[in-house]
Design a protein that fits this description.
Blueprint: H1 13-48, H2 54-76, H3 83-86, H4 95-119, E1 123-127, H5 133-156, H6 158-188, H7 192-212, H8 216-232, E2 247-251, H9 255-258, H10 270-284, H11 286-293, H12 310-321
Antiparallel strand pairs: 1-2
């Protein structure tokens, strides 16, 4: 099925201008929606005294606002669409497998980034099993699932698709990856290495969309990335330690290996994990890249039938110009009897 980001479609100048306007409007709407959703969630949680649910409610509100806003932008161009399409979650067979493949890739990259710290003895882990731990764990996983989807929708969803139609997939990948790195620096205070790692992650997740034309794979990758790093290993995720519920880990040693207080996303060695993940991503998505991104093969060329000889053509024309000769067909008779003989009784 075609997508708004299909780079094979040639856009006129007016079409590119419209797509650029949609991209700017989509980014502005995403920023406004983030502020509005955080304010709404804060008011509700304070009213009902459920502070633990504030991150989940904020992410759900943000996802809803993104779906409504992006759908309205498409309707302005008289292109009615569904929320699933604008969110980058097309309904197609095997989407569950795509998500699981992404989750396996995300978990593998985190394991590769953390393994050197573990082998070097730089991780000091403690376990917390206080009352209500299981409830907080489930709530935290739900929050990470929705939050990881909203991040992908903003940076690899509708705005990314509009930008592809303006400057192509390579330019759109670079622009959105740089924006993702700057967002990490502004929101989470990422160090310089953390910004470079965030840009590399932006490229990786953008390629995941370009290979599948959907967010199922990228959503699974991001969820497994933050869940494995924060919940399973208890390490900071982009400098935030709120995900550490059961396991809390302190990493000591050089920052190029551990990332310091920012976590593995601020470590240089994480770049090698992203490179390995990119190689695995390209190999695992060969079928998806063919099924979802290649244009259908259309027959073309010119006919290859050989022309008949000139003498044969002249003979056929001569026969067609003459009236057909009459041919008399006699009735058949049994063997041993002529046509004029009287039939036997």
């Amino acid at each position: 099925m075609p997508y708004a980001s299909d780079s094979t479609i040639t856009q006129p100048r007016t079409g590119r201008t419209l797509q650029l306007a949609r991209f700017v409007a989509a980014i502005a709407w995403a920023v406004s929606s983030r502020l509005l959703s955080a304010s709404s969630a804060r008011g509700i949680t304070n009213r009902f005294n459920i502070d633990a649910a504030r991150p989940l409610l904020s992410s759900l509100f943000l996802l809803f606002l993104l779906a409504v806003g992006f759908a309205l932008l498409e309707m302005i161009g008289r292109r009615p669409t569904s929320a699933r399409v604008v969110l980058g979650l097309p309904r197609r067979p095997g989407w569950e497998r795509e998500w699981l493949i992404g989750a396996a890739l995300g978990w593998g990259m985190v394991l590769l980034a953390v393994l050197p710290m573990l082998l070097a003895g730089r991780l000091h882990t403690t376990f917390w099993t206080g009352p209500g731990t299981l409830k907080l764990l489930v709530l935290n996983l739900l929050t990470l699932a929705v939050t990881s989807l909203t991040v992908e929708v903003v940076f690899r969803g509708y705005p990314f698709q509009c930008l592809i139609r303006v400057i192509g997939p390579v330019g759109a990948t670079l622009v959105m990856s740089v924006l993702f790195g700057l967002a990490q620096a502004l929101i989470n205070g990422a160090p310089r290495i953390g910004v470079y790692v965030a840009i590399g992650m932006g490229v990786l997740f953008s390629i995941a969309w370009l290979r599948t034309h959907g967010l199922w794979l990228g959503w699974g990758m991001r969820f497994a990335w933050v869940a494995s790093m924060g919940v399973l290993f208890g390490l900071p995720v982009s400098g935030v330690v709120d995900s550490s519920i059961l396991v809390q880990t302190l990493a000591s040693g050089t920052s190029w290996l551990t990332g310091g207080s920012y976590g593995p996303e601020g470590a240089r060695f994480t770049g090698f994990a992203l490179l390995a993940g990119l190689i695995a991503l390209v190999r695992l998505t060969r079928d998806y890249a063919w099924n979802y991104t290649h244009a259908p093969i259309v027959a073309g060329g010119y006919p290859m039938e050989a022309k008949p000889p000139a003498a044969h053509t002249a003979m056929e024309q001569a026969q067609q110009s003459q009236p057909p000769s009459l041919i008399q067909i006699l009735p058949s008779s049994p063997e041993g009897r002529s046509v004029g003989d009287r039939p036997e009784n």
